[in-house]
Write a structure and sequence with these properties.
This protein is an alpha+beta fold. The protein has three helices and ten strands, in the order E-E-E-H-E-H-E-E-E-E-E-E-H. Helix 1 packs parallel to helix 2.
Length: about 200
């Protein structure tokens, strides 16, 4: 099964897609260099398919997550990681929560989403998990982060509002005349007949 990570960026935000220096087998990821205000940052979108954490797979996942975050930190000082990692941060006593919390500690990242992002109801049982994350090494750049229920998915939408504003440039109107289909003889006759006095 193949998955793809998509990123949509406004046309007014300077953005460039970056290539990773290796191929990842446990996660799908996309890296963007984005300029917000006067600050440049690396934004990484990630998705990890649901799979049990054990043995070699867990070690490989830890290595890939650590490598991506190290790579991003070397590109720019400011890094944000957003995505569905299918690692429940609300359960630090399980291997999936511990893996994510260890990554945050190792990379000096902070999870800016604090409430559950997936609430599943099965009969009388309700389970809440925080598997969609927004991690950043510069949490002070964000003035507000949270979740929003779109009612379109079993996952809540996560968001982060940044303090920096994107500089909007004034529209520039250029007026010109196109002489591509101009008949020069007709044009010369009109100039000769014009009242120049």
């Amino acid at each position: 099964m193949t998955f793809a990570v998509l990123a949509f960026v406004s046309a007014v935000i300077p953005c460039k897609r970056l290539k990773f220096d290796r191929i990842y087998k446990c996660i799908e990821a996309i890296a963007l260099e984005i300029t917000v205000g006067r600050k440049e940052m690396i934004m990484i979108g990630m998705f990890r398919p649901l799979r049990a954490l054990n043995g070699y797979y867990q070690l490989a996942l830890e290595d890939e997550l650590s490598h991506i975050c190290n790579w991003a930190s070397l590109q720019k000082g400011t890094v944000a990681v957003i995505g569905d990692l299918n690692l429940d941060r609300l359960r630090p006593n399980r291997s999936e929560g511990k893996l994510l919390i260890d990554l945050e500690s190792e990379q000096e990242l902070e999870c800016l989403i604090k409430e559950p992002t997936r609430i599943e109801r099965r009969g009388a049982t309700t389970t809440s998990t925080l598997i969609d994350v927004l991690l950043s090494n510069r949490p002070e750049m964000f003035k507000q982060c949270g979740t929003y229920d779109t009612a379109l998915s079993d996952h809540l939408l996560i968001y982060g509002l940044m303090k920096e504003t994107v500089k909007r440039y004034q529209d520039k109107i250029i007026t010109f005349r196109n002489y591509k289909n101009c008949d020069m003889k007709v044009y010369a006759n009109k100039l000769a007949a014009a009242p120049w006095h």
